[in-house]
Amino acid sequence: MFDRKDLEELEKIKWNDILVVSLFLNVSPQERKKQAYISKFKNLVKSITEENYNACKEDIEKIESFLQSDRESFKKSIVIYSCTKKDFWVRYDLNVEVNDNLIIDKTPFTSPLFDLLDNYQKYGLLLVDKRAARVFQVFLGDIEEYGMVEHEDVPGKHKKGGWFALAEKRYERHIDYHVKNHLKDVIERFGDFLKDKNIRRLILAGPNEAISELMNVLTNEIKQKIVGRLNIEKYASKEEVLQKVLPIIEEYEKSKEKETVSDLITKALKNESAVTGIDDTLKYLRERRVMKLVIAKDYAVEGFICENCGFATTQYIECCMECGNCVIKTDNLIEKATEMAIQQSALVEVVRDEKDRQRLLQYGGIGAFLRF
Fold first, then answer.
1. Among the listed residues 274, 295, 279, 276, the one whose alpha carbon sits nearest the alpha carbon of residue 357
2. Is 86 helix (H, G, I), strand (E, B) or coil?
3. pLDDT at position 92, please?
4. What's the pLDDT tens digit per position in 351-368?
5. 367 - beta bridge partners?
6. For residue 32, is pLDDT > 80?
7. Are 155 and 178 in contact (CB under 8 A)?
8. Distance from C-alpha of 123 to C-alpha of 125, rounded to nearest angstrom
9. Which tens digits make up the pLDDT trace of 182-207?
10. For residues 345-370, b (16+ Cβ closer than 10 Å) or e, as one string?
11. Maximum distance among all Cα pairs of the chain, rounded to whole angstroms
C-alpha cells in the first residue's frame, strides 16, 4: 500500500533531461489469461513517440521482462515507476482497477494514485465482543488485520438456578466491571491505531449488545468517525469481513461525493469561498488559496503552461502573462491543477459517480473550496 506522503515524495522527483516511465496496467485474473495484459502493454508502448521510446528503451524492456516473469504475485492492477539511469524503481500492487496508461515525462505521473487516495479513504474496523476485539484497516479494496485484544479473565454468564440465582445481581455487576475494563482497554489501543494510521472513518462490528456497551465508553472524538455498524461473527475470515464491509463503504462514499458536489456548486454560485471552472480555479491555485480541489473523473482540457513560472491558462497565448517567458501547449491542464494543489497540501477529490460527475461538468468540470 501507499499513502499521501509516498506520493508527495514522488512528486518531488525531477531529473532535468532524464525521463521517468509511469505505467498503469490492469492485470486481473481475466487479463492474465493468455497474457492479454502483455499485449495491452505492447500497444501502449506503440503509442509513444520514437524519441521517448529510444530515451527509455531500457526501462520499457525491464518492465516487460517483469510483467512476463512475476505475474503470480499480481492483484487486479499494477503501477510501476521506472528510471534505470537513476536506479529508480517503484511498484504498487493494487486490488482495484486503474485506467491503462503509459506516461513518459520528467516527473512520475501520480494523479491517478491521488485519485485513488481520495476515492478509497482508509477505514478502521473494530470487531468486538465482551471478551475480545479484532482491529482491521480497509483501504483500496484490501483488508489488513492489525491484531487482537483479548481478555480471558472476563467471566461468562451462569445458568440461573440454585445459589447463583440468589447472587445474580451481584454477579452481573461483577461481569459488567470486567466487560467495561475490557472495552476501555480496547478503546485506548484502538484510538492509538486510528491516530497512527491517520484513519478518519470507522465501522463498528459485532453483536448488538457488545456494540451498545462499546458506545457507552467511546470518546466523542472516536464517535464522530463512525460511519456504519454491522453484525459479524467474531472469528470471521478477513475475506468474509471485507465482503460485508465494502457495501457500507461504497454507500457512504457515494453520499459524501453527492454532498461535496452540491456544496461546491451552491457556495460558488453564492460566491462563498468556492469557485468552479478551470481558469478561476487556476487563479486561486496560483494565489495558494485552495483548500480542496474537486475534479470530475476523466475530465481533461487543453491549455498553455509557462515552463518558467508555472502560469497556466486555457486562453491562447504565445508568452506568459506573468513573466513574459515562452509557454508550451498541454492536452491536460487538470494534471497541472492537481500538481499545484498537491504542492500546497490541498485536498484533491475526484467525482466518480456518473450523475454527480455530469452535474459538475455543467459547471466546468473542476472547482475548489477556498481557504479564505
1. 295
2. helix
3. 94
4. 989 999 999 999 999 999
5. 276, 294
6. no
7. yes
8. 6
9. 567 777 777 777 778 788 899 999 88
10. ebbbbbbbbeebbebbeebbbbbbbb
11. 95
The three-class DSSP label of residue 50 is helix
Backbone angles phi, psi at 182, to 5 degrees: -60, -50
| Angle formed at CA 277 by CA 333 and CA 262, multiple of 5 degrees | 125
Structure pTM? 0.69
Report yes or no: 314 and 303 within 8 Å, Cβ to Cβ. yes
Q: What percent of the chain has pLDDT over 90?
A: 49
| Claim to verify: residue 268 and residue 358 sit in the same structural domain | yes
Distance CA 218, CA 185 (A): 11
pLDDT greater than 80 at residue 299: yes
Q: What is the pLDDT of residue 55?
A: 95
The CATH number of the domain holding residue 18 is 3.30.960
Residue 310 has pLDDT above 70, yes or no: yes
Reduce the DSSP state of residue 18 to 3 states and report it.
strand
Please name every residue paired with 149 in a beta bridge, in sequence order, or none if there are none.
Answer: 133
Which three three-digit cell numbers place residue 51? 524519441
HSE toward the beta carbon, residue 176, CA cutoff 13 A: 10
- Domain boundary, last residue among 236, 268, 294: 236
- Which domain covers residue 142, as residue numbers? 123-236
